[in-house]
Write a structure and sequence with these properties.
about 425 residues, Nucleotidyltransferase, domain 5, DNA Binding (I), subunit A, 4 domains, 5-stranded antiparallel sheet, about 25% helix, globular
């Protein structure tokens, strides 16, 4: 099971302890709860203690990254804490695309609009798109938090390098790397040859054909030739931005044929390739010994020990010390879901981009803000009961609490007791117990 983080009375990190020992210390009032996520206790009368070597291991991923804290023993190494960090890069990309569409819509009308200023901006060295930068920031944020509550002695990072061309063509070699799919073709001619100069959806020939995105760009599709096909005007309009599976749900044979002609998307591999150096450079700022290992070594260590494929297990098996790691069957990693810290949007807008609500008046109300984790014991009125969940503030002082059973409205702030301030993440502790903050 997960260990509990411990601080001494001067807020210096000690070795994580077993959950049973933490409960005993809290019950005898020799310790108090210092932080709920990650769960940390602080000792009231103890200063210092014996420390062991503790490694923080990171397995970066496109959608989910694994983090594991591993103690180094004489015979084997033991995982004391592990987590999955779920990134929100796709949500950031969708939000940026939505705002970009609204700006372009305003510029086409004779109304007030924000003039384009991207021509005046210069990207600094090492610039990353916001959706990629968020992945790096999530990992660095949690390494900082773990350094505050645990005595980490060194950092271990898996540097994955994806050969994107070999992922699509395992037999590629030599000069073929430089030629690519379009060698000797223009894009339109290549697509015409690939799809036999016919509509992929109705087999129409001798009609004007349009280049169509199989996975719509509005749903994360790329402009790679592997995501392009041919469609007649009627099929292109009929499909719109629907997914291929939805559009061809009644023609499964055609769906299977098109899917066989497609190549695997490389978005996730490109994401990992683009962020691996940024994560490494950011980790150097902690002034701790940092070692980087290949994904092949991680896979070898995991396979030799017979462990299943998972992000936190991959993190534990990184590097030389990952060759002998002890994992228990009952160990459940913490699931950390990045949600962001609210919205900078001052007011809601309609589909044309015009404001339809008033601007935000204040972010905090009576010391609470949206996203705080609270518990409320209502003793009178129509809302009598106990409520635990995420808070949504209202200027009237009557808040909404999002619990596991739904949203409860109209809970007065006097009944609310703060448990954890909003920090941009949701937590799933395993076994169906979740908390949002």
């Amino acid at each position: 099971m997960q260990r509990v983080f411990v601080l001494d009375s001067q807020k210096q990190p000690l070795m994580p302890c077993h959950g049973a020992r933490a409960r005993m210390l809290l019950k005898t009032k020799r310790a108090a709860v210092y932080r709920r996520f990650p769960f940390t206790i602080i000792l009231k009368y103890r200063i210092g203690g014996e420390l062991q070597s503790l490694e923080a291991k990171i397995d970066p991923g496109s959608k989910t990254s694994g983090v594991a804290l591993v103690t180094q023993g004489k015979k084997s190494n033991k995982v004391v804490w592990a987590a999955h960090i779920h990134h929100r890069g796709d949500a950031i990309r969708a939000a940026l695309a939505s705002r970009r569409a609204l700006r372009r819509l305003r510029r086409s009308r004779h109304t007030r609009y924000r003039a384009p200023c991207f021509d005046n901006r210069k990207r600094p060295m090492g610039w990353l798109a916001p959706s990629l930068r968020s992945r790096v920031d999530n990992i660095i944020t949690w390494i900082k938090r773990l350094l505050y509550c645990s005595p980490i002695t060194n950092l271990v990072l898996e540097e994955v390098r994806f050969d994107t061309q070999r992922l699509q063509n395992p037999a590629i070699s030599g000069i073929e790397y430089q030629q690519g799919n379009l060698f000797g073709y223009e894009v339109k001619e290549y697509i015409l040859e690939k799809w036999q100069r016919a509509c992929a959806y109705c087999d129409a020939k001798q009609v004007p054909l349009e280049v169509e995105h199989i996975v719509p760009t509005s749903k994360g599709g790329s402009h790679r030739v592997s995501n392009l096909t041919l469609a007649c005007r009627g099929c292109n309009l009929k499909k719109g931005n629907a997914s291929l599976e939805t559009f061809l749900s009644k023609d499964l044979k055609r769906l299977a044929r098109i899917l066989n002609q497609l190549q695997a998307p490389l978005k996730d591999a490109a994401t990992v390739n683009a962020t691996r150096y940024a994560i490494r450079d950011k980790l150097k700022q902690f002034d701790l010994p940092l070692s980087c290992w290949s994904g092949a070594r991680t896979k070898f260590n995991r396979s030799q020990q017979g462990y299943a494929k998972d992000h936190w297990i991959d993190a534990a098996c990184i590097g030389e010390t990952g060759a002998r790691v002890t994992l228990t069957e009952k160990f459940i990693p913490v699931s950390i879901i990045a949600t962001g810290r609210g919205s900078r949007q001052m007011c809601r807008v309609d589909r044309y981009g015009f404001p339809r609500t008033k601007g935000k008046s204040q972010k905090q109300v009576q010391g609470f803000k949206t996203g705080d984790l609270v518990q409320a014991l209502v003793t009178q009125g129509k809302k009598v009961g106990y409520y635990f969940g995420r808070l949504a503030v209202r200027t009237s002082g009557n808040f909404n609490i999002k619990t596991l059973n739904g949203v409860v409205q109209g809970i007065h702030y006097k009944y609310c007791q703060p448990l954890h301030s909003a920090d941009g993440y949701n937590y799933n502790l395993g076994g169906g117990v979740s908390a949002s903050c």
